[in-house]
Design a protein that fits this description.
Number of helices: 10
Helix content: 40-55%
Distance between the termini: 28 Å
Radius of gyration: 19 Å
Structural class: alpha+beta
Shape: elongated
Oligomer: single chain
Number of strands: 4
Strand order of the largest sheet: 1-2-3-4
């Protein structure tokens, strides 16, 4: 997981002085700091992540495009994926979200619609502030999941799209027997999700996937 999704305090490096301040004055001071909230919401989220020792929720499936941006991610209860029609990300509830808290979907919806780092952090900051003040119904897993989605989207925002495809050395791939690939079940599930969402047949989705890999 650590190698796949960048730690939030690596996306936004935490200054030692800020950590010392937050440790001495408390989380409430950090979240209520008007200057930081206005100008550096991502820094607050990063310090909070560091001090609370937050770990990401590991996705069941994580797919990236050729540029390293997240193309789709499947979690327990919901998926996020790039929507070609929107030109940005969308989400789909696929199961029970109760373990994340009653207000989780509200903030998930807001995060996936924002298209820049600052906006993503502001939504995340509002969520964790409400969580700490007891005004937002989120569980610890809900906070972890929001951080995971936020980190994935921020990584994608930072990926520059270049013309043409990077040259890759052709290395022969020896595929293991299908029964030894546990991720195949999740891939099949994602293909079914795409087919259902865009009213396509499974064969049509597979043809699109093959075209992407040409």
């Amino acid at each position: 997981m650590d190698a796949e999704i960048t730690h939030f305090d690596k996306l936004f490096p935490v200054r030692k002085a800020m950590v010392v301040n937050a440790e001495s004055k408390g989380i409430s001071w950090l979240l209520a700091n008007a200057i930081l909230r206005k100008y550096q919401p991502c820094l607050i989220c990063s310090v909070y992540y560091y001090l609370k020792n937050i770990t990401y929720i590991e996705p069941n499936v994580l797919l990236r495009d050729e540029f390293g941006r997240v193309a789709g991610a499947e979690f327990d209860g919901f998926n996020i994926m790039f929507d070609e029609g929107l030109g940005w990300y969308d989400y789909l509830v696929t199961g029970d979200l109760s373990k994340y808290g009653k207000d989780f979907e509200v903030y998930l919806r807001k995060i996936v619609t924002v298209r820049n780092e600052d906006g993503i952090c502001r939504v995340l900051l509002t969520a964790i502030t409400g969580y700490e003040e007891g005004k937002v119904n989120l569980t610890e897993d809900g906070v972890r999941a929001l951080y995971t989605v936020a980190a994935l989207l921020i990584e994608s925002v930072r990926k520059k799209v270049v013309k043409g495809k990077p040259e890759k050395p052709e290395v022969p791939i020896i595929a293991p027997p299908t029964e030894e690939i546990p991720e195949l079940g999740a891939v099949v599930s994602m293909i079914g999700f795409i087919a259902n969402k865009y009213k396509m047949s499974v064969d049509e989705v597979i043809k699109l996937v093959r075209r992407k890999f040409k």
